[in-house]
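sry for the spam today, last one i promise. struct tokens for design, 498 residues
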């Protein structure tokens, strides 16, 4: 209980190894009552069970739930639905059979090898209909429904990876099923492979989107079919992309995760992506990716190629990508990506100031005050310091120096806050109180996203004591998000406002 991604991921805590089926509904009811009574009421952004579990601790939360469960009067509806559940069990349409690959096309054989997985039940396969970008039009969807009615019964599902899964397809029917998908233009190969990218809507339709996550996913898919074809079929790497920090694309639990941000250089703003490495879905998301670099959106495909090649050339036998990242170290990986992190000026290359698959400028601010050049430059240096410090905090965390990691994370946030304050006209030589000025000029005015501002102020109040591994990791996530939000606010501040 209490797990979730979002801007800062929280690993779910174990309530019980086993819950009898008759206890599922009363247990859920008890949990809901505890959360309704003690969960956040004023701050909508923190109205999540994960925050309550983190606040009271899993042991206390379990005690409260069990106490609440004992209070619940018996309700026959807790178990009456079980008699009806039998009607929803999967029913087979056709008997299992064997597939004959003799004389079949190479395209079918490749599709069957990658997109169809044998079930435990002999004679059947589960077919994944691969949907690049998760897109399927109405005619294709109707056609897929007709096709499925020929071979299966009521067993069509959508997946977290944005594909469609069809279970209980008889192996002998795979050739006909494939031919039907070909007619619908739904027979693309790549399910579960590197080309099978998960991406949120991003700026295509989401008001919170900062960058075009679908644009990057589309560009990568295009390159996998032309130029990066040697990578497309890899099954040892997964890519997930979010258009902002909110992790709707699940970037925290990908081998290679991207989330969109913005970077201002002079009076122009470019789309950039934070690169997170080392996340996994295994073991109850036992590891979340942490940022190793920030790269221009235009360079993201090259980053994927560089990382994939590095993993191919230097990984040990049977070493997963998260294990490889931990062994190699983020400092080495950051050095490998160094040349791809540079953002040229607008005058040097205007393409870097356009988002992927978008021909217009991402954003451009033409205002310029008399002293804008000097102040903007100082702000950008402060942001560079912030990025350096938060990366150093990540290295300290990886090496077990948690108190140092917490201290550097706070220093990084302070540098980013100073960058905004300098842009507002304050001078570092004035020796002002950063927390006090930031709170007055950006937090209380609502110009800065409140949850991230609150995290910064709370971290400053609590200092740099050793928080333990889980809380230290959250501090690093909070610092990264604070810096990215500061960059976003900075990008909205025209030079003429100085």
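last one done:
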């Amino acid at each position: 209980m209490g797990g979730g991604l979002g801007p800062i991921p929280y690993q779910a805590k174990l309530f019980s190894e086993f819950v009898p089926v008759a206890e599922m509904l009363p247990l859920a009811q008890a949990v809901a009552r505890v959360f309704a009574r003690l969960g956040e009421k004023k701050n909508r952004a923190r109205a999540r069970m994960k925050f309550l579990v983190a606040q009271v601790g899993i042991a206390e939360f379990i005690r409260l739930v069990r106490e609440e469960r004992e209070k619940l009067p018996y309700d026959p509806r807790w178990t009456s639905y079980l008699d009806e559940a039998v009607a929803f069990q999967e029913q087979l349409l056709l008997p299992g059979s064997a597939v004959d690959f003799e004389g079949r096309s190479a395209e079918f054989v490749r599709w069957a090898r990658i997109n169809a997985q044998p079930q435990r039940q002999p004679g059947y396969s589960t077919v994944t209909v691969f949907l690049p970008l998760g897109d399927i039009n109405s005619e294709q969807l109707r056609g897929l429904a007709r096709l499925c009615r020929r071979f299966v019964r009521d067993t069509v599902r959508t997946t977290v990876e944005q594909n469609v899964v069809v279970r209980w397809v008889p192996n002998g029917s795979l050739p006909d099923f494939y031919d039907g998908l070909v007619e619908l233009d739904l027979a693309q190969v790549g399910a579960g492979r590197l080309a099978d990218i998960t991406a949120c809507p991003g700026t295509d339709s989401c008001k919170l989107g900062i960058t075009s996550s679908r644009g990057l996913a589309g560009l990568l898919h295009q390159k996998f079919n032309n130029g990066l074809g040697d990578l497309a079929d890899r099954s040892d790497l997964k890519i997930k992309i979010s258009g902002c920090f909110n992790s709707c694309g699940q970037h925290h639990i990908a081998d290679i995760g991207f989330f969109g941000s913005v970077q201002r250089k002079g009076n122009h703003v470019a789309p950039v992506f934070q690169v997170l490495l080392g996340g996994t879905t295994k073991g109850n998301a036992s590891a979340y990716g942490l940022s190793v670099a920030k790269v221009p959106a235009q360079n993201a495909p090259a980053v994927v190629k560089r990382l994939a090649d590095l993993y191919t050339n230097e990984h040990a036998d049977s070493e997963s990508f998260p294990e490889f990242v931990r062994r190699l170290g983020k400092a080495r990986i950051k050095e490998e990506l160094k040349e791809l992190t540079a953002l040229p000026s607008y005058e040097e290359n205007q393409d870097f100031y356009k988002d992927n698959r978008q021909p217009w400028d991402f954003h451009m601010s033409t205002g310029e005050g008399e002293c804008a050049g000097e102040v903007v430059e100082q702000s950008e240096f402060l942001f560079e310091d912030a990025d350096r410090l938060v990366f150093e905090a990540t290295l300290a965390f990886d090496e077990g120096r948690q108190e140092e990691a917490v201290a550097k994370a706070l220093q990084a946030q302070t540098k980013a806050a100073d960058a905004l304050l300098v842009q507002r006209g304050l001078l570092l030589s004035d020796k002002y109180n950063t927390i006090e000025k930031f709170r007055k000029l950006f937090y209380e005015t609502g110009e800065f996203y409140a949850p991230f501002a609150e995290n910064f102020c709370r971290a400053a109040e609590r200092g740099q004591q050793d928080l333990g591994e889980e809380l230290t990791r959250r501090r690093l996530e909070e610092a990264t998000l604070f810096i990215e939000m500061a960059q976003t606010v900075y990008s909205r501040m025209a030079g003429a406002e100085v």
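The chain has four domains: 21-88, 106-183, 196-364, 368-498. ok im logging off now
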